[in-house]
Design goal:
By secondary structure, the protein is α+β, with helices and mostly antiparallel strands. The protein contains 22 helices and 8 strands. The protein has 3 domains: about 190 residues, no CATH class; about 130 residues, RNA polymerase sigma-54 factor, core-binding domain (Arc Repressor Mutant, subunit A, Orthogonal Bundle), CATH 1.10.10.1330; about 70 residues, Homeodomain-like (Arc Repressor Mutant, subunit A, Orthogonal Bundle), CATH 1.10.10.60. α6 crosses α7, α9 packs antiparallel against α10 and α10 packs across α13.
Length: about 450
């Protein structure tokens, strides 16, 4: 067949993720703090939107508000819910206040703490220069990030002189500061606190074996009995692996719940924390300019108006979706909200998705990274979704099984901690059919070390 060019028309269907749909999905997945940041960013970009001044919010209202809303094709129901004037839900939501806190004052840094100690020590100018360079090379955890050769090159000194000054700085408070690795950090602290020679030997030569629970190997190498090794281990684990952490002014993250579940009589009410979002409104100047401005200005403002309307519509849809999902969760986990965390029922994303006739991924986005304020405290929304394990013909949620494992470990004999097999046998005797490897997985997720590392005298 002779090759030739051809042109044909083919009709196909495919799903295209538009920028607007992508934004709606992104907004649904945001928690209240992230959404607040997005709104503030949009206010900076969009001249049609502005923050409402809390002090003047209740002054005179524009008489042409209804005409303006009509101009926007009846978009009066769009907004941020709890801040819309005249809304009955606004008065109800104003009763719920998010977590309020005052910003903590930054602590003195580890470097500032060390420099204050350096100021009371008599050193010659060269040693002062070396000591200052060493202190400025210490990170927030208290570890030295430069080698003696690098410090000597930067301060025009010899490595021996740097080592001498370094040993002096390592005697500063807190113990273990200016160490170059974990082993040296623990060794400095052990010497400062006067730990036993066995503890020092374990730190210097058997730190990896100690971390892996190889106590028999340590006993053979040090000619010490198991009781002595365990006593040395208990003293070592009390040391601080990051001596500078107490001085670093790290950022403290506060949890602001997105949802509150309040009990009113025998019913539970789901309230969204819209009061944590910025209050916005249409800018009156650009609103008039959109109607009577020049053509180019009107064309630009129309685009910004469509962008603002879709943002507000996406936020409103987020409110509706999260409310529906949380109401379904409350209905399925009623025992939890009545009696506490020990009564969590097995539930999956698909259970809620099938009830609300939405996709599993939509439920996942609606609860991802969000917290709910309940009568028993603040919990992540993801916690309510837990597959079940068979028990006496019924299903028990994984969350409750993990609580049972924690309780068994908490009440175990420190001298003879429970193994995974013993924990599995104990759960089986209570009617929970669970394998040893499943217990090991749950124990690892809870951050509980294995039995050989939990053993104490």
């Amino acid at each position: 067949m002779k090759p030739a060019y051809g042109l044909e028309l083919v009709q196909t269907q495919k799903l295209v993720l538009t920028p607007e749909l992508h934004q709606a999905i992104m907004i649904l997945q945001m928690n209240v703090q992230e959404l607040s940041g997005l709104i503030l960013e949009e206010i900076e970009k969009n001249p049609l939107l502005e923050l409402i001044d809390e002090t003047t919010e209740k002054l005179h209202e524009d008489e042409d508000e209804e005409d303006w809303m009509a101009y926007f094709l009846d978009s009066s129901d769009l907004g941020l819910g709890g801040r819309v004037r005249g809304s009955s839900s606004a008065r109800r939501l104003d009763e719920y206040n998010p977590l309020r806190y005052t910003s903590a004052q930054p602590n003195v840094s580890i470097r500032g703490h060390l420099l204050s100690q350096l100021g009371v020590i008599r050193l010659d100018p060269k040693e002062q220069s070396i000591a200052r360079f060493i202190i400025e090379s210490i990170d927030d955890n208290g570890y030295l990030q430069s080698t003696p050769r690098e410090i000597a090159s930067a301060t025009a000194s010899c490595p021996e002189q740097v080592e001498s000054v370094l040993k002096l700085v390592q005697k500063f408070d807190p113990p273990g500061v200016a160490a170059r690795n974990l082993r040296e950090c623990l060794e400095l602290q052990a010497e400062a606190k006067g730990l036993s020679p066995l503890a020092l030997e374990i730190i210097r030569h058997h730190l990896d074996d100690l971390a892996r629970g190889r106590y028999s190997k340590i006993c053979q190498s040090t000619n010490a009995c198991l009781k002595q090794v365990l006593r040395a281990r208990d003293s070592i684990v009390k040391l601080q692996p990051k001596p500078g952490a107490a001085f670093s002014g790290g950022h403290v993250t506060f949890i602001v719940p997105d949802i509150a579940v309040k009990r009113i009589g025998d019913e539970f009410v789901v309230i969204l924390n819209d009061s944590a979002l910025p209050s916005i409104r249409w800018n009156p100047y650009y609103r008039k300019l959109l109607i009577s401005g020049e053509k180019d200005a009107r064309s630009y403002l129309i685009k910004q108006m469509k962008r603002a309307r879709f943002l507000l519509r996406s936020i409103e849809q987020r409110r509706i979706t999260i409310s529906r999902v949380m109401e379904s969760i409350v209905g399925r986990q009623r025992r939890f909200f009545l009696e506490g965390p020990g009564h969590l029922e097995p539930m999956t994303l698909k259970d809620v998705a099938d009830e609300l006739d939405i996709h599993d991924s939509t439920v996942s986005r609606a609860v991802s990274g969000k917290y709910v304020d309940t009568p028993f405290g603040v919990f992540p929304c993801k916690m309510f979704f837990s597959p079940g394990v068979e028990s006496y013909g019924q299903e028990v949620s994984q969350y409750n099984i993990k609580r049972m494992i924690e309780e068994m470990v908490r009440n175990e004999d420190p001298g003879a901690p429970l193994t995974d097999s013993q924990i599995a046998h104990g759960l089986n005797s209570q009617g929970v059919e669970i394998a040893r490897r499943t217990v090991a997985k749950y124990r690892s997720q809870l951050g509980i070390p294995p039995s050989n590392r939990r053993k104490k005298l």
